[in-house]
Amino acid sequence: MFETLKNFMAEELNVNPDSITMEAELSGDLGINSLELADLVYACEEKFNVVIEDEDLHNFNTVGDVVNYLESKV
User: Fold this and answer.
1) What is the CATH number of the domain that holds 69?
2) Among 8, 10, 25, 74, which is most exposed with the fewest C-beta within 10 angstroms?
């Protein structure tokens, strides 16, 4: 799950793959803005066949938060 997410972030969001760790903050460390987060959510929903509720988005502070959420839904 982590590697898939890391690859997407590196390729589609132009994030340096070396900076993508489970502890990396989405906005603070990786510079992901709200539009990019929406793209990430959409891609995850499509790739993993899950629905990510809007109210859950405020819990996505780090890459690890996203990975753990997806793992709990798959």
Assistant:
1) 1.10.1200.10
2) 74
